[in-house]
Amino acid sequence: MLAYFLLLVPLPPLGGFLLLALDPYRLERRAVMAVALAAGIAPLVLFLPVALGYFAGSIGDTIAPAFTLNFGQFEVALAMQLDALSAIAALTVTVVASCVMIYAADYMASARVADLRRFFALMNLFLAGMLSVVMAADSIVFFLGWELMGLCSFFLISYNMNSPRAFAAGRKAFVMTRIADAALLAGLLLLFLEATSVRIADLIPAGLAAPEQRAVVIAVLLLVGALGKSAQLPFQTWLPTAMAGPTPVSALLHSATMVAAGAILLIRFAPLIEAHPGVAAATAIAGVATAVFGALCAVAQTDIKRLLAYSSISQIGFMLLAVGMGAPGVAMAHFVVHALFKSLLFMSAGVLSHASGGTTEIRRLRGSAYAAPISFATYVVGAAALAGFPILSAGWWSKEAVLGAAVMAGPFGQFLWLVALGSAALTGVYAYRPVWSALRSPVEPLPAIKENWLAVGPLIFLATASVLGSFLVGPIVRTMGGTVPHAGLGVEVMGALAAIAGLIGSVVVSFSPVWSARIKRARRLRAGMQMDAIYYAFLVRPYRRVVHKLSGRNARKDTSHEAETDRTDGGMGDPVGTATVNLGLWLARVVTAPFVPDRFDLVTMRSTREVRRAGVWARRLQTGRLRTYVMAIAFGLGVLVILGWGMTWG
Amino acid sequence: MGLSLQILLPFFGGLAVLFAPRFGRDMERWGTVAVMALTLVVLLYSVVNGDSGRWLAFTRIDWAPSFGIQVLLAMDGLSAAMLAISAGLGIVCVFVSWHVTHRSAMYHAVICWTIATANGVFLSFDLLVFAFFWELMIVPAFLLIGLWGHGQRESAAMKFLVFNAVAGLGLLAAVFWMGATAPEITFDAFVLAESDYATWVQVLLLLGFALAFMVKLPVPPFHAWLPDAHTQAPTAGSILLAGLLLKTGAYGLFRFPPLLFPDGLMALAPYGMALGAFGVLYGAILACGQFDAKRLIAYTSISHMSIVLMGVCGGVHFALAGAGVEMVAHAFSSSALFLLIGALQQRTGTRDLRDLGGLQKTAPAFATSFAVFFAAALAMPGTANFLGEALVITGMFQVNWAFAAIALLSLIVSVLYATRLIGAIVFGKPKAATATFEDLKPHELWPIIALGAGTLFFGLFPQTLVGWLRPAVDAALLPLGVGAP
Amino acid sequence: MTPLNILLVLSAGLFFAGLFGVAARRTILMQLISLEIMLSGPALGFVAVGAYHGSVEGTGMFLMVLGLAAAEVALGLAIYLHMRRATGGDSDLAHRLRG
């Protein structure tokens, strides 16, 4: 019975999407908001009792089958499941999504009704997709939700239809995540072929039992899929530009849920990663490298949304580090905490920027602390959580767990721990920068803005959760079946010191003119080490050149209007196709060329000429004169006589 | 009886439609709809009352026994699906061509005849009759493009004619040879399937058949006729071309090589898959560079049908099932895209991507429909297109990982061309041509809804389609892959 | 040379003389006169052969030829008069049947 209830959870957002996208009833603004919020919050309402029951232990692991297909010995059984991961993740997702939806109801209030409908339809579809991903019991539902999120991300990033920049950002995100999705699909299909089933519970043992080489390939493919979706190195360039989308999009998709889906993937398939030390090490290294890279780039940012984007990249790196170190439960805890404070940060940053007149530049946020005090306060709490303010913030607890897991994993882990510690310090440096900026007095005093309860309510809730979440970290790890790593007091003190160092560093960076100038000059770092440009030069431009070469230089000419000249040579591009056509034309020419001057016809025509000449000559007999005819008769008579005389001889 | 009606109804219906205008305005349109609906009803009846076992329905009528020619019609799940699509697309074509007034009766008659000849291809198992319908199929399509098309229609129609007629020669030669050299002259495909040709003979015959099918599919390097034919054809012509005629090539590849030349197919399968892999990438890359919307979709058709080629040559269950599903899915999605672009061209007068834009604002229903089929073109999970591609990729993993990798690449490149298309049409500010754009009218919207519903239904509930295609797939299996079920 | 031979030679000579005259003379009237001479040749021949054989058919043929000649002259002169109007007496000018 409960099983079927699980299947219901993603349905309200799906229904909301259909209602808003197809719009059969021509809904007005208020109705649109109502439908959107109802569809967005319903999953939380539906799932909360289930989750609480699960945590209380009264509901056990359940699988809710959808339907089953048969392909001979291969069975495709679609289902959703309730287990530790899905319960925790789904609860987090529904909570954060509800907060963001409520916030968005205020933030997007000034949009046109048509655009509002489009926005909320896509947000709801995205929510349905994310819930499919976290609650999937089989790889098909998982991948369905995964790709659906990618599609919604594309449409949501390019939500502002008038901005080519937004469209380009959405497109870049879509392409890069699609590359990762292709790798993920390959991994899932290979697992399916090994396991003859799509249930994740069957895939994991099959992946473990597969021959060594194949298993490593599968694990690597899954890792690549996670890296792409979570914007880790080397796929990280799409996330900063994805900030072109509206703030609620950044808050939901690109901080809390979609980008963390890669981590969810790795947590779900953790046994496969851990089975191969090489792959696990690669995961950890990728995570740590991204953590450092993201933190460094975040320090150099001047735009608060980009700063938060790099911060997301960095924090997810921590999650990957935990998985690589064999502690998926810890990664899960960090996922939950990160979802809470990151969405909080984005949303309060949105209010602060709104208070500063719509700019997202950190420098120009001056004075917004006084114009929007509640939002500022929640921002401070979120920043503290991000930076891992010791003991008081949930961020510290989860980050400590990650660092502890790294330390306890042997010498290699300890090396990574050091690097991660540096990244944690840097996190503090950049996290507080907007705080100090907002506290400074503005050039002109900013008018205080009305902090709508719709906007601020979720903020306060999330801020509280970011603090109280400290108590959740342990239970989460334990529910996931892991143990909270206690690496000793020394390590924890180092962690606290790193956080405090970060705080001090941020003060230095924000107020010291030397450092401020250094940051301003760090253009390369700000542009993410220009990896974007590298990708463009080595991947995008050559591809475009190939496309142009094959499509023909004259493909740029107007081909849809009637002025086109249909040439079969180059210019219309398509070398393979025109080669065939030209080959055919050449063959036709060569085969018919010997026959072109029609020799039979020539013979016929020439013979007619001879005949004509003979005729002309014969006409000379026809003089029309009597005398000629008389002579002719006489001549003939003479011939006859001689003939007769000759015959008498015989 | 029901099977021959599938061919005779549209044919005589077409003749009747020629005289329909006497009975009233628009009667030729409603007449065509009636004919197609009737065909569909007869099909449903045949399917519902069909036998279980290999063939749903089977008809044999002797025609010229001394030459071994008979009218041998057989239908299973695959052909039934194709027949349903042909009748359905016929109805869609009528609604799409509401604005055509120039020689409208002949136009609708030609549509009926296209469907009649295509149905003949889908049903015939006497090789001579099959080849007859194969060649005959070219004629109504040629008329459709050449008489009612756009600017360069005559040359496009000629190109279509020459390519397909020349390719049909291979088919004819193989068919005649097989029929004449059989111990007792016959063109019955099932009887000929029993004959034991040497492998090299099978390869040659297969090449003859395959040439005709590959030009129709179309697979590079034989594809050059398709972009021109699509750009110059009227909307209904493009829909029938993409939704129906291309599928006849796929259908032929699906049916006859495994039946008649299994050893030859085994020998040539790797080359077929390689050609398909090349076609997938080539079509996709070229699609990224087009400025003409219809041409872009034409190249994507080439890419998708190359996936079908890969699937058919794959020989394993997944690959074949994927090929069959992709045939159905592509019929839906490409017809819908051509419908939308056709509506676009009719309203704005242009297909050039540089002149279009901003339709989200001026025509939201159009934009939403476009988004749905944008997702289908991308092979988004949930659409039947993804199902087909995923199944083919799974099959490729069983045969050769390199081909699987290339098929996966198509997933990535499809994003590039799909975003190019939707970005130029739906996104951005409205331009001069699209500032006043009448949104989709009901008679255009209903086909879109039907096609979209079909795509999503088969994508989300694939067991119907896959089960339906199962007998056809089983008959076409080859022992190629590892771990084939 | 018997007398018959001489007469036959003479009649042949008359015939050919007349033939020569028709062929050689341009004037239509002279052609008609030559035609008469041509007629007289075989006429003489008939008479000679009739006398030689002692039968009267020869003389009868001669009379027929005479009558024929008379009729032909009558018609011929009538035609000559018409032709003279068209061609002025020159037979070479009557060449409408020229090929």
TrEMBL record, chain A:
Biased composition (Basic and acidic residues): 555-569
Major subcellular site: membrane
GO cellular component terms listed in the entry, alphabetical order: endomembrane system; membrane
Pfam families membership: Proton_antipo_M, Proton_antipo_N
Residue stretches making up the NADH-Ubiquinone oxidoreductase (complex I) chain 5 N-terminal domain: 70-120
GO molecular function (one): NADH dehydrogenase activity
Region described as Disordered: 554-573
Keywords tagged on the record: Membrane, Transmembrane, Transmembrane helix
Signal peptide annotation: none
Keyword S-adenosyl-L-methionine in annotation: no
Domain spans labelled NADH:quinone oxidoreductase/Mrp antiporter transmembrane: 136-419
Its biological purpose: NDH-1 shuttles electrons from NADH, via FMN and iron-sulfur (Fe-S) centers, to quinones in the respiratory chain. The immediate electron acceptor for the enzyme in this species is believed to be ubiquinone. Couples the redox reaction to proton translocation (for every two electrons transferred, four hydrogen ions are translocated across the cytoplasmic membrane), and thus conserves the redox energy in a proton gradient.
Protein name (Swiss-Prot/TrEMBL): Oxidoreductase
Automatic annotation (TrEMBL), chain B:
Location of the NADH:quinone oxidoreductase/Mrp antiporter transmembrane domain: 125-408
One Pfam family cited in the UniProt record for this chain: Proton_antipo_M
TM helices/strands, residue ranges: 6-23, 30-48, 68-98, 105-125, 131-148, 160-177, 197-215, 236-256, 268-289, 296-321, 327-344, 365-387, 399-427, 448-469
GO cellular component entries: endomembrane system; membrane
Location of the protein in the cell: Endomembrane system; Membrane
UniProt superkingdom: Bacteria
InterPro entries, alphabetized: NADH_Q_OxRdtase_chainM/4 (IPR010227), NADH_UbQ_OxRdtase (IPR003918), ND/Mrp_TM (IPR001750)
GO biological process terms held by the UniProt record: ATP synthesis coupled electron transport; electron transport coupled proton transport
Keyword Translocase carried by entry: no
Keywords: Membrane, Transmembrane, Transmembrane helix
Molecular function in Gene Ontology: NADH dehydrogenase (ubiquinone) activity; NADH dehydrogenase activity; ubiquinone binding
Biological role stated in the UniProt entry: NDH-1 shuttles electrons from NADH, via FMN and iron-sulfur (Fe-S) centers, to quinones in the respiratory chain. The immediate electron acceptor for the enzyme in this species is believed to be ubiquinone. Couples the redox reaction to proton translocation (for every two electrons transferred, four hydrogen ions are translocated across the cytoplasmic membrane), and thus conserves the redox energy in a proton gradient.
PANTHER family: NADH-UBIQUINONE OXIDOREDUCTASE CHAIN 4 (PTHR43507:SF1)
Similarity field: Belongs to the complex I subunit 4 family.
Protein name per UniProt: Oxidoreductase
Organism of provenance: Roseinatronobacter bogoriensis subsp. barguzinensis
Taxonomic lineage: Bacteria, Pseudomonadati, Pseudomonadota, Alphaproteobacteria, Rhodobacterales
TrEMBL record, chain C:
Family the entry assigns: Belongs to the complex I subunit 4L family.
A GO biological-process term: ATP synthesis coupled electron transport
Protein name per UniProt: NADH-quinone oxidoreductase subunit K
Function: NDH-1 shuttles electrons from NADH, via FMN and iron-sulfur (Fe-S) centers, to quinones in the respiratory chain. The immediate electron acceptor for the enzyme in this species is believed to be ubiquinone. Couples the redox reaction to proton translocation (for every two electrons transferred, four hydrogen ions are translocated across the cytoplasmic membrane), and thus conserves the redox energy in a proton gradient.
Entry's EC annotation: 7.1.1.-
Signal sequence annotation: none
Cellular localization per UniProt: Cell membrane; Membrane
Keywords: Cell membrane, Membrane, NAD, Quinone, Translocase, Transmembrane, Transmembrane helix, Transport, Ubiquinone
Cited InterPro entries: NADH_UbQ_OxRdtase_chain4L/K, NUOK/Mnh_C1-like
Parts of the chain that traverse the membrane: 6-23, 35-54, 60-81
Catalytic activity field: a quinone + NADH + 5 H(+)(in) = a quinol + NAD(+) + 4 H(+)(out)
Organism listed in the record: Roseinatronobacter bogoriensis subsp. barguzinensis
Quaternary structure and partners: NDH-1 is composed of 14 different subunits. Subunits NuoA, H, J, K, L, M, N constitute the membrane sector of the complex.
UniProt-recorded Gene Ontology molecular function terms: NADH dehydrogenase (quinone) (non-electrogenic) activity; quinone binding
Membrane topology listed for this record: Multi-pass membrane protein
Gene Ontology CC annotation, any one: plasma membrane
Highest taxon above the source species: Bacteria
